[in-house]
Amino acid sequence: MNRKLRPSPLVAVAFLVLALFIGIAAFAPWVAPYDVSKVVGGVWEPPSAIALLGTDNLGRDLLSRIIWGAQVTLSIAALATLIAFIVGVALGLLAAMQRGWVDQALSRGNDLMMAIPTLIFALVVLAVLPKNVVVLVLVMAALDATRVFRVSRAVATDIAVLDYVEVARMRGEGWGWIMLREILPNAAAPLLAEFGMRFAFAVLFLSTLSFLGLGIQPPVADWGSLVKENKDGLLFGIFAALIPGGAIVLLAVSVNLIVDWVLTRAAHLRGELGNG
To answer: What's this model's pTM, rounded to 2 decimal places?
Structure first.
């Protein structure tokens, strides 16, 4: 492999961190020392053999709560991002292919949604609707789909005017075939990078909603709710809130490093193909 395409040591560490988080999320029932709600000691006890990272505001094992929280945080963020991408990419490609009134209607509707502040929209909707996982995922997906639509439409519009797409049109291929066989494969790299960015933002957004009390509801835990539950300990020199907060930061930074490497690699490959 070309040295320029190899991930740097920092990117390699980011891959390892992401794999670690995915691993503990997938195998939480077997990795977590205790159940998510099990009380194992006193309030905000220091690290010990019983609780390796200490206990939280109710005496529950903080390590177990973080592991179970990783499963909730990553699964909800991934599901919301996946739904957002299915909807956003489909509508973005449709707008780029159809143009005319279809493009105008979809684009103006998307602009209207993006004009509403994301957090305010989510807070209003979640304050009115039932606070459950389904509603939370759909709200997050709807807000993220607007960003995905904008990116996918822009990428697809640039690709739709290239020669091989015009050749496919002249062969009589339908717009659905052109979208799936000509445009989507050639838009994979920027869309994959956007997926990573959207996933990182989904983790941050979910954590923000949980910190404000409108995200994941007790007794279920995610990293944002863990920060909220233990924030008062900072007044007494207890740093239990910083551990889940650090996990959020570490995940977001790792995903951003990987996304940056993917974009750099894709740009380098395009340059080599263009020079060839």
So the answer is: 0.91
